[in-house]
């Protein structure tokens, strides 16, 4: 395990290092010269690393690479596995012990804190259950990346202060902070990446089965003005009523995902000011109010999911799209209008997913919808078909999912000729209660894994395609005529 020292450990280690240097100087100058010419690593840092004696354990759920087994005191520590030194100063700047099969502890007097020039430290996917996270982690002045995820540290009962550290990335995944934790200081920390999945700020507030954040997101996060990556998603017990106040200051954000976090507030208009945003996930956040009509004009936006909220918008939202948009899910956004027949200005040439389920949309399905490459979901609206052969407008061979169920469509379609023959990759087809009449005509044995024809008028003949329906994984024909 990681060796711990008493309160005089630094003094003792310094004396030992000095004695080691003096003995080498007086006993064998030539030997010292040879070592210095071949070993670039600083002696005190090499000794500090060697103080980390490791106990292996065989119960790791991760692939193990025991890096420390190859460390030897007669070799240059800059060449050790998992260690990286600065090319000019030769100080140790990176220690990567990720998934090294370590079982031990890191206390405040651990020798690892003697590596003052450290910029990168990863202890993830090890068993550190003997100790809690030390406050000394906050004293690495040059640390840019800290990864303690899945390291089984015991719950912290003290304050952690990273106010003097200029992080570019920090990961605390599955790290627990106990109910007695009084303060986690992140003020003035400049993060470009923050991952707090499954962090327990207060284990007393959640059940043992839960692994997510709970409580309220601190307003101080708004002071991280250089923040680029914010992901608090999948934490249903986490509240963020101050989302609008936080987001207004974080203009450098590239990635925001607070899906399933309870915001319970109006959707902030300041979202359109995040000019560098590429990913925005706001699904099931209890958001209310009007969706800013300029949200799709963000130049770099590729992913937008604002589904399952209490948000409304209007057709002007579709007037100006950026060319980068790939994924759009506006399900349950109330439009109370029709889709525009033509898109004005720039159009999303790379759109792969379009989900507009239950958006209270009326009118004809415009042809631009069929340019979507993978998923189209227009289910549970009041849409009508422009012509009986409207499905012939689909030209995207890569389409995987198509949902037109619960609409006011009309016309007769051939399941094979109009759909399956044109969409060889189709895995899901939902036409239930769509108003369409479906004919099972002769064709190859091609059926999607998921097929919904509930309350459709189906004309079936004894053909290879109709006999193959038993192969469909989810075949819904209830109340079908």
UniProtKB/TrEMBL annotation:
Highest taxon in the source lineage: Eukaryota
Pfam families with a match to the protein in the record: LRR_1 (PF00560), LRRNT_2 (PF08263)
Record's keyword annotation contains NAD: no
First-listed, main subcellular location of the protein, grouped into a coarse class: membrane
Subcellular location: Membrane
Keyword Kinase: no
One CC-aspect GO term: membrane
Keywords in alphabetical order: Glycoprotein, Leucine-rich repeat, Membrane, Repeat, Signal, Transmembrane, Transmembrane helix
Membrane-topology annotation of the record: Single-pass type I membrane protein
Signal peptide: 1-27
Positions of the Leucine-rich repeat-containing N-terminal plant-type domain: 63-86
InterPro entries per UniProt: Leu-rich_rpt, LRR_dom_sf, LRR_N_plant-typ, RLP23-like
Protein name, UniProt field: Leucine-rich repeat-containing N-terminal plant-type domain-containing protein
Native species: Saponaria officinalis
Lineage: Eukaryota, Viridiplantae, Streptophyta, Embryophyta, Tracheophyta
């Amino acid at each position: 395990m990681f060796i711990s020292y008493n309160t005089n450990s630094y003094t003792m280690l310094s004396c030992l290092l000095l004695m080691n240097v003096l003995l080498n100087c007086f006993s064998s100058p030539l030997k010292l010269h040879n070592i210095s010419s071949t070993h670039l690593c600083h002696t005190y840092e090499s000794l500090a690393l060697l103080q980390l004696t490791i106990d292996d354990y065989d119960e790791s759920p991760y692939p193990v690479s025991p890096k420390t087994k190859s460390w030897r005191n007669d070799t240059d520590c800059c060449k050790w596995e998992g260690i990286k030194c600065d090319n000019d100063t030769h100080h140790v700047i990176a220690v990567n012990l990720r998934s090294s099969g370590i079982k031990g502890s890191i206390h405040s007097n651990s020798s690892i804190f003697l590596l003052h020039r450290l910029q990168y430290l990863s202890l993830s996917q090890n068993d550190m259950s003997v100790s809690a996270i030390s406050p000394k982690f906050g004293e690495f002045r040059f640390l840019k990346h800290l990864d303690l995820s899945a390291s089984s540290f015991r719950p912290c009962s003290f304050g952690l202060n990273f106010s003097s550290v200029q992080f570019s990335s920090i990961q605390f995944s599955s790290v627990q902070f106990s109910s007695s934790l009084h303060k986690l200081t992140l003020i003035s920390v400049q993060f470009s990446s923050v991952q707090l999945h499954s962090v327990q700020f207060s284990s007393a507030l959640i059940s043992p089965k839960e692994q997510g954040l709970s409580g309220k997101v601190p307003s101080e996060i708004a002071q991280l003005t250089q923040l680029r990556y914010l992901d608090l998603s999948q934490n249903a017990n986490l509240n963020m009523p101050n989302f609008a106040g936080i987001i207004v200051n974080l203009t450098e954000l590239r990635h925001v995902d607070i899906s399933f976090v309870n915001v319970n507030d109006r959707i902030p208009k300041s979202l359109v000011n995040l000019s560098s945003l590429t990913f925005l996930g706001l699904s099931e956040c209890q958001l209310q109010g009007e969706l800013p009509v300029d949200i799709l004009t963000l130049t770099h936006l590729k992913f937008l999911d604002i589904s399952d909220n209490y948000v409304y918008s209007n057709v002007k939202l579709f007037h100006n799209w950026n060319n980068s948009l790939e994924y759009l899910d506006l399900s349950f956004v109330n439009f109370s209008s029709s889709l525009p027949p033509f898109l004005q200005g720039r159009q999303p040439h790379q759109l792969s997913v379009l989900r507009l389920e239950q958006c209270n949309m009326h009118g004809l399905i415009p042809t631009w919808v069929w340019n979507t490459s993978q998923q189209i979901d227009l289910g549970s609206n009041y849409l009508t078909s422009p012509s009986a052969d409207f499905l012939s407008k689909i030209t995207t061979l890569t389409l995987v999912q198509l949902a037109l169920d619960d609409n006011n469509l009309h016309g007769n379609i051939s399941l094979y000729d109009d759909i399956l023959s044109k969409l060889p990759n189709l895995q899901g087809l939902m036409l239930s209660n769509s108003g369409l009449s479906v004919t099972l005509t002769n064709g190859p044995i091609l059926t999607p894994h998921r097929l919904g024809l509930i309350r459709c008028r189906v004309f079936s003949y004894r053909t290879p395609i109709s006999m193959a329906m038993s192969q469909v994984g989810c075949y819904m024909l209830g109340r079908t005529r």
